[in-house]
Design a protein that fits this description.
With 453 residues, this protein is of the alpha/beta class. It has 16 helices and 15 strands.
């Protein structure tokens, strides 16, 4: 990895002063990757033009080949498209900072490819993490950007091991992030406590998760008020005594139904310079805010949030309301139609067509995969129409983070390399032409019916 970074730095320092083209992905990891790179370029007094894309494909690369830029930087994407980059961008200087598995081993000399991962070994690191390590090695001044890579890693559901641990340590050392031990629950800073309990899937709370009435009753039984001076009480508002009551109550509720009832705590990563009870205080909620901006086709707002622009923070907070409505509508559609979906012993295929936004289909599938609706290791395939007559396909595995199942291999078997695909072991996807809709479904059923898990 160090040799890859060293070579990229040497190539970077030899660049002329012409504007640089930057391409990144629209999710949390992509937006944090882009934000790190933009600040690096600004500090190096380099001009740049940024584009955020849903995914890299042949059409995007064809367009880039026609643009008048000598240098193109890809962050959080590119490794899975080296074959096409070799084909279309052979006359340009290319930098790739990514963590996805490369599609080929042969890389042309015009490409500086920084990626520690291969089919033989996978490190815990995100695209933003790779971008950050380049930035840090270029100049220690950039060490203050480590917190953005932490947010990106959380957005990709990664563990703080391997290279990620080094990056987290940098974020703590620069006084950007504070680590506290707390309840795993999402929304501690911004959501009413009863809503946090109602939607808590990790930890799952029998009789409470999935039920607003159950959550309110649970709080009443514990003697915790729902409101404090006409404001809904949040998890971060609880005093020490209330927090003890809550944790004890959750563990008791989980006794007899969960393998480890006391497994309700985790590290919480708080941004020290952000306001309490804001969407940007907790790194997990910050990551969700960025995903919201990207998924609602407002990635520039997410970049503005990463660059600490107050105006864009306010816009992003408003977008969160729309994001929640879209997610709720998508989940309601799923619950109203799940009995009509294609099912097997170990899989479910959800063809949402035009009922769920294609940029949200992966997020909704992830939520469903963690909602304890289906048994562990059930494979979910979801599909949604795009505006350009394609279908976005997302694959997830239910509560199978420690499973040996590799969704990428299954998807590769389904697509037979006819359609563009990419992703990770537990979360991947592809894009198929709409005319191949039924063919894809038939092939998926055929392949999954032959799998036994």
């Amino acid at each position: 990895m160090q040799d890859l970074i060293k070579n990229a730095i040497e190539e970077f320092k030899n660049l002329d002063n012409k504007p640089i083209r930057v391409i990144s992905h629209l999710d949390s990891d992509g937006l944090t990757s882009a934000s790190i790179m933009l600040q690096v370029l600004k500090r190096e007094k380099k001009k740049f033009v940024l584009s955020i894309v849903k995914q890299l494909n042949e059409n995007v690369l064809k367009e880039l080949s026609l643009e008048n830029y000598n240098t193109i930087i890809f962050t959080d994407l590119g490794s899975g498209y080296i074959k096409l980059i070799n084909q279309y961008l052979k006359n340009k200087k290319i930098f790739i900072f990514d963590h996805h598995i490369p599609d080929v081993s042969e890389i042309h000399s015009n490409i500086s490819h920084v990626n520690p991962n291969s089919s033989d070994r996978i490190f815990q690191i995100s695209g933003s993490g790779v971008t950050y390590l380049f930035a840090k090695n270029l100049s220690l001044e950039n060490k203050d950007l480590a917190y953005l890579a932490v947010i990106g890693s959380i957005g990709d559901s990664q563990k703080f091991q391997d290279l990620n641990k080094q990056i987290l340590d940098d974020a703590v050392d620069t006084n950007k992030i504070e680590i506290r031990r707390g309840l795993k629950m999402f929304g501690a800073q911004t959501k009413p406590l009863y809503k946090v309990l109602q939607f808590s899937t990790d930890p799952f709370i029998p009789g409470v998760t999935g039920s607003e009435e159950g959550a309110l009753l649970f709080m009443n039984e514990l003697g915790i008020e729902v409101k404090d001076n006409d404001r809904f009480k949040k998890l971060v508002n609880l005093n020490e005594e209330e927090l003890k009551k809550l944790t004890t109550g959750i563990i008791l509720k989980r006794l007899g139904s969960e393998k480890n009832p006391a497994d309700i705590f985790s590290d919480v990563y708080l941004l020290k310079e952000e306001e309490d009870e804001s969407f940007t205080k907790d790194a997990r909620e910050f990551s969700t805010l960025l995903n919201c901006c990207g998924r609602l086709d407002k990635p520039s707002v997410g970049i503005g949030v990463c660059l600490n622009n107050p105006k864009f923070k306010n816009i992003a907070n408003e977008l969160m309301k729309e994001y929640k409505i879209e997610l709720i509508n998508g989940l309601n559609w799923f619950y109203n139609n799940k009995d009509k979906m294609i099912k097997g012993n170990n899989y479910l295929i959800m063809n949402a067509q035009e009922n769920i936004r294609d940029t949200l289909i992966g997020t909704i599938t992830s939520i469903i995969s963690k909602a304890n609706i289906y048994r562990e290791n059930t494979i979910l395939i979801s599909m949604a129409y795009t505006i350009d007559n394609n279908i976005k396909v997302s694959m997830r595995i239910c509560n199978g983070d420690n499973s040996e199942i590799d969704l990428r291999e299954i998807l590769k078997e389904i697509t037979e390399d006819k359609w563009e695909s990419g992703g990770h072991k537990y979360a991947c996807g592809c894009l198929i032409p709409i005319e191949n809709e039924q063919e894809f479904i038939n092939k998926s059923v055929d392949v999954l019916n032959r799998k036994v898990y």
